[in-house]
Amino acid sequence: MKNHEIRIREANKTDVPRIVEMLADDVLGKSREQSTPELNDVYVHAFNDIDKDPNATILLACSGENIVGCMQINILANLSRTGTKRGQIEGVRVDSVMRGQGVGAFLMDAAIDYCKQHGCGLMQLTTDARRPESAKFYDKYGFVASHIGYKLTL
Question: Would you say residue 150 lies in a domain?
Fold first, then answer.
């Protein structure tokens, strides 16, 4: 797929079922998400919270009318690094049929532009250690695995 065939737009509530479908469409996501014909209301509530937050957005990569990728960006205010804002990238997914065709790179380019436009001096993300292909993608993009990430399920 050539990048000129992809366009980026912000998600709206009607996109939530498709986003959840993509989040569930991999080995790890299958066990974490609930992609069913009857969308669980927790996803709609979560989207509403994101949509109300001026420092959060979900970007979609679209090919024609088809959503083929997504990512969430949260702009984080910080005191450290002399008050440098950070762009936190979450929930990156590309439709399994479209992987390896440049959609992820197109999304990442859009995320970099978005973060720069919102005054960020740093972008950060985590990727599950069980996804080595994702780590290679971020390495090629110039991200540096400089920290050890921890998560605590509550």
Answer: no
139 vs 27: which has the higher pLDDT: 139
What are the backbone angles phi and psi of residue 39, rounded to the nearest 5°?
Answer: -60, 130
Mean pLDDT value across residues 35-46: 83
Q: How confident is the model at residue 29 (pLDDT cuts 50, 70, 90)?
A: low
Amino acid at 22: M
DSSP 23-78: HHSSTTHHHH----SS--HHHHHHHHHHHH-TTEEEEEEEETTEEEEEEEEEEE--
* pLDDT score, position 4: 55
Residue 143 CB-density burial (10 A; 0-12 exposed, 13-18 middle, 19+ buried):
middle
Does the predicted model carry a pTM greater than 0.85? yes
Within-domain flag for 153:
no
Q: What is the CATH number of the domain that holds 74?
A: 3.40.630.30
Q: Which domain holds residue 15?
A: 3-140
In a domain, 149, yes or no: no
